Amino acid sequence: MRGAKSAKWVAIAAVVALGATACGGGGDSGSGDDASRAVNANGVFSYQSNEPQHPIQPANVMETGGGRITDALFSGLVDYNPKTGKLENLVAESIKQDDASHYTIKVKQGWTFHNGEKVTAHSFVDAWNWAADSKNAQQNASWFADIKGYTDVHPEKGDAKTDKMSGLTTPDDYTIKVELASPVPYWTYKLGYSAFYPLPKVFYTNPKKYGQEPIGNGAYKFAKWNHNQDFLVKTYAKYAGPKPKNGGIDFKFYTSAEAAYQDAVSDNLDVLDQVAPTDMAKYHQDLGKRAVDAPQNAIQTVAVAEYAPTIKNLKDHAKFVQGLSMAIDRNTITKTVLAGSREPATGFVPPAVEGYKANACGEACTYNPKKAKQLIQEAGGANASISILYNADGGHKEWVTAVCANITQNTGVKCEGDSKADFKTALDVRTKKKVQSLYRSGWVQDYPLNANFLKDLYGSKAAGNEGGYANKEFDRLSAKADGASSLEESVKLYQDAEAALFKDMPAIPLWYYKTNAGYSKNVKNVTYDTFGKPVFGDVEVFKK
Amino acid sequence: MGRYVARRLLQMIPVFLGTTLLIFLMVYSLPGDPVRALWGDRPADPQAMARLKHEYWLDRPVLEQYWHYVSNVVKGDFGTSFVTGRRVVDVMSEVFPVTIRLALVAFTIEIVVGLTLGLVSGLNRGKIADKFVLLVTLLLVSIPIFVLGFIAQTVFGNQLGWVTPTVQDSNDITQLILPGIVLGSLSFAYVARLSRTSIAENLRADYVRTAVAKGLPRRRVIGVHLMRNSLIPVVTFLGTDLGALMAGAIVTEGIFNVHGIGNTLYRSINQSDNTTVVGIVTVLVLVYLVSSLLVDLLYAVLDPRIRYV
What we know:
The structure holds 2 protein chains of 2 kinds.
Chain A: H1 2-23, E1 39-40, E2 44-49, H2 64-73, E3 78-80, E4 87-89, E5 92-99, E6 102-107, H3 121-132, H4 150-153, E7 168-169, E8 175-179, H5 187-190, H6 202-205, H7 207-212, E9 220-226, E10 230-235, E11 248-253, H8 257-265, H9 283-287, E12 291-304, H10 309-312, H11 317-326, H12 330-335, E13 342-344, H13 369-378, E14 385-391, H14 397-411, E15 414-420, H15 423-431, E16 438-444, H16 450-458, H17 472-482, H18 487-501, E17 507-518, E18 523-524, E19 540-542
Chain B: H1 2-29, H2 34-37, H3 46-55, H4 62-74, H5 88-123, H6 128-142, H7 145-159, H8 177-202, H9 206-213, H10 218-247, H11 249-256, H12 261-270, H13 274-302
Helix pairs in contact in B: 1-13, 5-6, 5-8, 5-10, 5-13, 6-8, 7-8, 7-11, 8-10, 8-11, 9-10, 10-13, 11-12, 12-13
């Protein structure tokens, strides 16, 4: 039995070894001697990213991977203040609103592309015309739909009649005159979006080649793109805007957020984009003062499929949805299930958005199980059974289960998650209008203005309105807001439109997103804007 | 022999056609519209969608798409991905070398460590060394690879700091050693067990007894007579395993952020990037076919009695 005995010892040793590795860990929290460390103005920091889906050309970039890189390489006419989200001029000297459909934009002189070409009014207008042209099949083409003549270059069917929008003219090299097809008092807010970035002449000669080695007009210029590895940009010495405090950014591609987190904790990656759900509970502990927890302008909702029989056949469907909404304990779910990574929603517009109205949803978004049950009964839905459609690849399962548990427990309505394997499958069900009753929906701002969270999602003719919601009052109020003569007035009128939504609730607002991120010991001064993007230019790199 | 090789090579053609067609049909029948998914939550532009679909043949019937694809592959053109706009050949030439290196590291460890352990425990059947090897291999076989990966990452990367938790440069082979060990650990456990059994069995065979009786030195008995005969099942396993290592790198590459085929395949499947998926899998099928052919040819080297007809 000698062998058996020693085998036992080996087994014990192995178990101990495994246990030790599993329970170990813990790290230091934040270093206190930041002030005494010298900063290297030419230091390059690495940043968590992923391989861009498309070649880099502004009008075709929609996802985060390419979007962040595009934002580093280009500067638009305007930019949003990273803290307040307010609009600020960047390449624009001034933007004059003659009325809600006529704008005069003066472009600053002295700006150049990275190849030395001057940035003029034409750099913008030509880029916009090219992007809107249907034959170029740009994903962001619809951003130019406000401009007069868009339907000529991008008709619904058939080929474009011309390749220039009649609403865009350039009286001189540094002036752009814009005429919109119909009044949009907040049009300037859209100008900060990446689709409106300018392009140099060299782009048009070979867009394919350009997409691999982009030339922008931003604070950083293209250095190297190692596909599947990283994308390196260096500070552009002749940049006419505020100069970055670092020497460049190395966008390192990670296929999993967990791997990026591991690297950040061990100082092999400098700036995180977003902490993975699995690491959410411990990132404050691991990173200490270097953990970031900032508001982000994005919202998670559960939208109602108005066409679904379960919803359509109810006696009072508004009361039913309000009842469901009141049955959800947002505070507890965001704290426990979501580990504090979200903020309970009190309306359809997140707080850092221009036009945010505190507690817009009021009673309907406040946890009240008693009233919830009463409303459901009044609505004739006590025996209803509903489901929430979601995609299993996005980390939604846990909260959908929790929300459903709340609903069933508090109102007696049967509720279960309707899981689809991935986002595109769930999307397919949505676009084909085959949702059983409710579906998970989310919205990240295109620009920090309340109209973006309202009109594009709940207007009865809005393309983003997949639930088939129609509310005449909302349509009337948003039309009125679009007809307003000034931005401020429009923002106010959109607040009224938002209020109209809560009467019958096209969706249940759940929570606002947060940027949960952090940075390594090699950098300081890392802050995030309302898009969840680090303010690249502010990051300072310590001397090694 | 020559005829055998020729016949085997010819057999590859229907296998190649069959697998690519199957993959094509499977990817095609996945629910959801990959082109629509490019827009995410935002409304899609029907015009741009139609143009993309037409440009990349996605609006044709699946068999037509397949024929178009295969006839191009024969010419060496694996097509262009509608998601990334990049030629699949370019993508593959970036990611295959990385995974081949990773697989080779794993493969080397598998052969060296696996065979050594198998030999040690087979020769000492029932003794401590044998029990120890059995226990270690049992442990390795029963731990899922992702658990092993995370343990290795935490211990060697975060706690001991011997390596960076993830691979910083996928083209640097020295950084691939740890992921290679993790990737190869399951297989070397199998190799150890396989070779242990066949060595222990052959140890009692007549020819070994004869060799010993002839008074041959122990090294020659083990090295030439015993090992050579015991290697046949092991070589079979190793041959098929080379392909499995490359395909099975998905988990390991994910944990250590190695930018090889595993990662690319995973991302491409997620994005319904059909051209990239089919391209990579096609090459993987070829790797399997070639390595199993090599295995069959190796048999004759190991055991001259085996003939090819």
